[in-house]
Amino acid sequence: MATNGAPDSWDDDVDAANIAEKLTALNIEAPSFVPNANAAAFVPSWLVPSEAAPAKEPSPVAEEVEQVQPSPTPSPTEAQNKMQVDDPSPVGNGPGPADSWEDKADMSSSATTPDDDDNSMEDDSGIKKSSRVKQKPKIVDAVTTDKEHVNVVFIGHVDAGKSTIGGQMMFLTGMVDKRTLEKYEKEAKEKNRETWYLSWCMDTNSEEREKGKTVEVGRAYFETEKKHFTILDAPGHKSFVPNMIGGASQADLAVLVISARKGEFETGFERGGQTREHAMLVKTAGVKHLVILINKMDDPTVKWDIKRYDYCKDQLTPYLKRVGFNPSKDIHFMPCSGLTGAGLMEPVGKDAPWYTGLPFIPYIDSLPAIKRHVEGPFMMPIVDKYSEMGTVVIGKVESGGCKKGDVLLIMPNRVEVKVDQLWSDDIEVTGVTSGENIKAKVKGIEESDVTPGFVLCCPTNPIKTGRVFDGQIVMLDLKSIICAGYSCILHLQAMAEEVTIKALICLVDKKTGEKSKTRPRFIKQDQIAIARFVSNHPICMETFKDHPQLGRFTLRDEGTTIAIGKILKVVE
Q1: Distances 258 to 220, 284, 311, 338 between C-alpha atoms, Å
Q2: How many Cβ atoms are within 10 Å of 99's Cβ, its own excluded?
Q3: Are the beta carbons of 471 and 566 closer than 8 angstroms?
Q4: pTM more than 0.85
């Protein structure tokens, strides 16, 4: 046997007639192979570990071509590019990318060295692939199932520091390595934006980085001793409130980020600011617990001053109480600085000796467990979708659980689909349960036929759909009055649909809860009414009594939230 693994005589092992055929099937244009000196022995991805031993057979390349070609999805050239390039490094070479990594981003460069690996992060940032993917292999498959899943949404006015706090938390919990952050810092400095580098962990596309404004809901995750947290970084700008509603509808816990800087708190809290609207929207979305982080305490205009902290606290408490949070149980204030990381993982200490409570991450770790609908039929409202060798849908499981290979229904289209692959927080799993943020690759429907707001559910007990329903609404900010025939946009989970008030059924007394005997002709601000709505298309919804999370909605018109409500009855 020669040192390079070729047999002494080719006649020994290989059929001479076959060689000609196999050679013609080889890909001549394949990129040149760049060896990695530290790589472990090459094990092809299709080999089961038990068969891995006979990997050094006479003509591994020829056999591979045979094995790879029949697979229907990738073309032979693509399959070989992957075979030559991406597979060698994951095998045992430290924290290399995991197997599903190559499905995540189209690898445009052929061979990657560890250095290029870092650079390729920039190229792929358009595909929402942030640096945290590199860390994946450290997390074992089982981890996703043992710990309790908690989805945390970060809300607040524009520039309060939501993305920066998200990035800082990922750094403190080891989800982003120092090297990536140094790279972001260097790039941010070149754009004269050096204080923004932490937010780039969450804001992955170039538009968000250029303007420093989050547009879509950023996702990341981190783990503590007891829990597995998913961070949902909602946009603060009022043009993107519909995106924020979709993010809030997946959350179990909300973090309202307030900027303590002089002038910024006031702007966010005034009538047009997003602080008020966001707090109200998360309450509507069903978030029971709210943590208020008073950020930028290290700012020169604040300098960890307790008077400023108390001022922000006293301004917010009455409003939050009015929205429906109980100040003694549901809300918790704490000071922090997103840029320096003070008050997030470690106590603020000497900066603010007046605050003795727990820092942010230990505090959310110590919160009591959340009740989940584990028993019920499977339901997952779809918040986002994309196409990647099949249709991939994203959302949070609201009830029940499902496994790989299950046949489910997409409502309101009533299309049967089969679950091909499941990921919980970017880690491939075989089954998921209620409360997890998942991605599912489904077979049997085109990506263009799915819109956010559709629901993936159990075929035996699907979610209700209808175009006419009765709802109880609480009027919030109204310029005038509302009569039958009024149209506005209804937001339910991630869906936005135009609805018309067909009839006003009755008014509800705020204090006693009694319903009026006569039908009102109009409703005005701060009144509670029951009305019948009609939509143009069928909507997936449940009554509030059966399933609170899928029975709450928000009504918006001309860019402001005018009412919040709950569904009482699906008529038809």
Answers
A1: 21, 20, 12, 11
A2: 13
A3: yes
A4: no
